[in-house]
Amino acid sequence: MRLERLPAKRRPIGLTSLIDVIFLLLLFFMLASTFSRYQAAPLSGTGPGARAEPPPLLRIHSAARFELDGLELSPEDLAWRLAALKAEGRRTVAIVAEEEAKVQDIVSVMDRVSDVGLAGVLIAGE
Amino acid sequence: MRLKPFERRQGRETTIPLINVVFLMLIFFLFAGSLEKDDARGVTAPTSLTQRDRNTSDDALVVDAAGNAWHDGEELTDETLLALLAARAGEDRPLKIAADEELAAGGLKSVLRAARQAGVANIVLLTRKATP
Fold this sequence. Notes:
Chain A: One of its GO terms (cellular component) is plasma membrane. Chain A is α/β, with parallel strands linked by helices. Chain A has helices at residues 15-32, 75-87, 103-115; strands at residues 38-42, 57-62, 65-68, 71-73, 92-97, 119-123.
């Protein structure tokens, strides 16, 4: 018995279906993905630090009004005052935020505190 | 005047660049985006210039600008907030707080006080990386 060989079907793979699939994938990833990335700023204490000396107290009134140990500070002064504290050998600064201060102000101040190498501890209860 | 007869363009030469561009966009979204759930999309987290540990907003306690607490898309009352914090008290993983940048410090402090009283020791505040 002679079997006839089937003629090989030569058909180019359709581009249209490929594009369809890629478009679907693209749409899915465009709609499902988020671009926001978050960082975690620790708010809790820095571990057991049994210091007899109370840390300097930094009070935040607003984005441009601070008070360090009861002394009014401008934002420009804050950086070098913090650096001076670091030079004195201090490790932590207690941060107290007044009611009207914004969360952004607190984070900005914590940034500046950690910039000079000090640890900022946010005091929640008074 | 004789005009050249209009030539039909072939379809092929436009589809392949199209596929290339779409492919590029696909790769871009694959790498640049992330498929994690963003619980804190309702609030604008404060920006921070300091480099900190990366984290996601999944399962975060969201506090909006008015001081209302949200978790998993549901607004929390005082009781449910306390119940949530009490359930978290013994856990090792940090409690993530996503506060709006416009939230007054008093609102954040009351949440922190409640968490401290409930016994949650490990608390982190979610920030966005500031673009300089």
